[in-house]
Design goal:
By secondary structure, the chain is an alpha+beta fold. The protein is built from three helices and nine strands; from the N terminus they run H-H-E-E-E-E-E-E-E-E-H-E. Homodimer.
């Protein structure tokens, strides 16, 4: 992927996180439900569903890989297939830092220089098989699982959890894997 394309993607993500444009699916985002054990949260996550956003336009097969980095940082690698599940692979690397006093449930994530956006782990399974991620504005939501294609029962349970957190689940865009 060309450097110019990557920089444009990063700039778009930063601008999207600052822009008031777009539907707000939750006007009163709750605080995260529980603390997060980082050594259990790291690893690969599959995006089950999301609120559509400008920096993931036309992405399928979305994964997020987290690893513990130096100095308390978390390395982030997001990937997707552009256009179709068999389309060209797109990857973007970033870093995250823990917000002090948040029980490791609030992070600041950067994919572009010194600009950081909020990443709140609103809820997660006790065994870390699923996670619901949002941020304070209520414009962004991600439902993540450890498997690409969880059962229908799990999907319904996660939609119910997102709804109970105040999200408009009618805005969910399901990711194809």
């Amino acid at each position: 992927m060309k450097t110019t394309s990557i920089l444009a993607l990063f700039a778009g993500a930063v601008l999207a996180s600052c822009s008031p444009v777009g539907p707000v699916g939750n006007r009163s985002v709750p605080e995260p439900a529980r603390t997060v054990e980082l050594n259990r949260y790291v690893g690969q996550w599959f995006e089950l569903a999301r609120y559509e956003n400008r920096f993931e336009t036309d992405c399928e097969g979305v994964t997020a890989d987290y690893t513990l980095g130096d100095g308390g940082m978390i390395n982030v690698m997001n990937t997707c297939r552009k256009g179709r599940i068999d389309g060209a692979r797109k990857a973007v690397a970033g870093r995250a830092k823990i917000v002090p006093g948040s029980g490791n449930a609030k992070l600041k994530v950067s994919f572009f220089g010194p600009f950081y956006g909020d990443y709140w782990i609103l809820d997660h399974a006790p065994d870390y098989t699923w996670s619901i991620v949002g941020e304070p504005s209520g414009r962004y939501l991600w439902i993540l699982t450890r498997t690409a294609k969880p059962s229908e029962q799990t999907r319904k349970m996660l939609v119910g959890k997102a709804r109970s957190l105040g999200y408009d689940t009618g805005l969910l865009r399901w990711t194809r894997h």
